[in-house]
Amino acid sequence: MSERGIPFVVSAPSGTGKTTVCRGVVERDPKIGFSISHTTRARRPDELDGVHYHFVSSEEFAELIAADGFVEHAEYAGNQYGTSWSAIDGPLSQGRDLLLEVEVQGARQLRERRSDARLVFLLPPSWEELERRLRGRGTDGPEAIARRLDVAHIELAAVHQFDYAVVNDEVETTIDAVLSIVRAERDGDPAPVLARYGRARVVAELGEVLPIPGASRG
Questions:
Q1: What is the per-residue pLDDT across 57-86, written as a single tens digit (0 to 9) for each?
Q2: Which of 10, 111, 134, 144 has its CA 20 to 30 A from that of 16?
């Protein structure tokens, strides 16, 4: 086992359910912690500062960027999100694994800046299901949903930059899949999970139901 912890990066198109999956993984595995990101978006009624996010102003966020305070940061839907170096360096140096829930742009930066990161991409079971989930949340109007779907088209192409891909068809099964990846990487034996959840295999299986560039379509 590694003396340092491993950063696991989870990303997905909006509406895929990554937050629910990530929190389920952390709840079930006491050896992995959840990295708390900074954001400029407004805090929702059920959210706590320092627990769900570090909620900061646009000015504070810009100051952190200028000071190279983020290992990754990205803009999404008009808001800024970022993971600070301090949020991950301490736990990793103490041997604790971390789960980072980030946007696709941030995942690219982590790939470049953290060679030890393992990247997991969550996929919806079909394009129709992704659209149904976005509409079912009831938080966005038709125009906002259309924008999210446009962005999702672009984000799906990013799956080729990830190590693993998991289809979030059923939440509990998806949590189990991500846990199996975490534990295999932690034990230094990723071959079995790569055979099942390796990005290339999963993308090929979804070629008929998702608009992923480079995916097989029969």
A1: 999 999 999 999 999 999 987 899 999 999
A2: 111
DSSP label at 164? E
Q: What is d(CA 137, CA 173) in angstroms, rounded to the nearest whole number?
A: 21
Contact 122, 206 (CB under 8 A): no
Residue 216 confidence (pLDDT):
59
Backbone CA torsion sign across 124, 196, 160, 117: positive
- Token pair belonging to 210: 């998702």
Only one residue has tokens 């009624």, namely 45
- What DSSP assignment string belongs to 82-134? EEEHHHHHHHHHTT-EEEEE--HHHHHHHHHH-TT-EEEEEE-S-HHHHHHHH
Count Cα atoms within 13 angstroms, Cβ side, for 79. Answer: 15
Are the C-beta atoms of 71 and 85 separated by less than 8 Å?
yes
Kindly indicate the confidence band of residue 147, based on its pLDDT and cuts at 50, 70 and 90.
Answer: confident
pLDDT for 33-59, tens place per residue?
999 999 999 998 889 999 989 999 999
